[in-house]
Amino acid sequence: MENRFLTGFASGCLAVGFLLGSKITDSGLARSLTGTEIEASEQGPRPTLIWRFETSEDELQSRITVDRAGDIYFGSDDHHVYKLSPRGVVRWSFDAGAPVRSTPAIGPDGFIYFGASNGMVYALNPADASPKSGWPFQAGVVESDVEVGPDGVVYVGSSDSNLYAINPDGTLKWVTLHEGDHESSPTLWNNRILFVPEYNAVRAYLLP
């Protein structure tokens, strides 16, 4: 039987590492980040909760990133980014000074990239959470996920209506006006075209 892992959030808690068989049994309710209840029903063995990690009373709105070793990274409204082992043990936590709703991204250099609500875009060493030289980068409020290209360039939208490209050394590569939702996350294709959603459309940027 194939084993799978699920992750979930609930009001300041991270429930991760549900060990599953191929299916789920009785009808149940899953609560989304917006509080919406979603009904799910399949047949099979129930999942077993193998651990649960709790931050503070603040919400978790960041998604989870998992590295090759199985360590997980996520941000919290308690102003911290956490790195946990596959068994739920805290390896480190980093105080970003503001809520972190941006999902951490792993760059080609192995550093962890994310934005915070104070406008800072961070790059952290995965071993000890020490900041990368030249970082953080100051933008506007960042609540979207960052995109890191294969060349290490970081793309991020911001509340100041700008779309930023940041060099691997933390300097500005370029900035362009983007009158969309600053919570929209850019997506890079073929290291050439950057897709960015806005309120009722999608923009495609041909990169220089």
Describe the fold and architecture:
Helices cover 0% and strands 43% of the residues. The protein has strands at residues 4-10, 13-20, 28-31, 37-40, 48-54, 65-66, 72-75, 80-84, 90-95, 105-106, 112-115, 120-124, 137-138, 147-148, 154-157, 162-166, 172-177, 187-189, 193-197, 202-206. A hairpin with a 5-residue loop joins strand 6 (65-66) and strand 7 (72-75). The protein starts with a strand and ends with a strand.
Show the helix and strand layout.
Elements: E1 4-10, E2 13-20, E3 28-31, E4 37-40, E5 48-54, E6 65-66, E7 72-75, E8 80-84, E9 90-95, E10 105-106, E11 112-115, E12 120-124, E13 137-138, E14 147-148, E15 154-157, E16 162-166, E17 172-177, E18 187-189, E19 193-197, E20 202-206
Antiparallel strand pairs: 1-2, 2-5, 3-4, 6-7, 7-8, 8-9, 10-11, 11-12, 12-13, 14-15, 15-16, 16-17, 18-19, 19-20
